[in-house]
Amino acid sequence: MLTQTKHTVLVRGGGEKHDLFAQLSDIGRTKSRPTFKLTLVNADRQELQQICDAVINGIIAEDGTGEHWNIMGHIINPPEWAVGFRSFNGQYNSETREGVLHKA
What is the count of structural domains for the chain? Predict the structure, then answer.
């Protein structure tokens, strides 16, 4: 079970695997870069959730399933309760579209 600390936020909802990997083709593009949608959830107060735009700058396979990824990036429009997560690293499951982000 994932728990929230002041350095962690949950992800419940996000893009599909092809949307995630499309982010890599736009690294270095500074204007009009497409974003990856993530629904951030405050685990301490789960009613606090917001769909945010993220830019993914790195993806590494976490295991051999082809669905679990270590991701790095930044959130363009974080909610007030997650403003410290502008830069993050974390884990994302492209099958369940859930994960956890940590402050970078």
Answer: 1
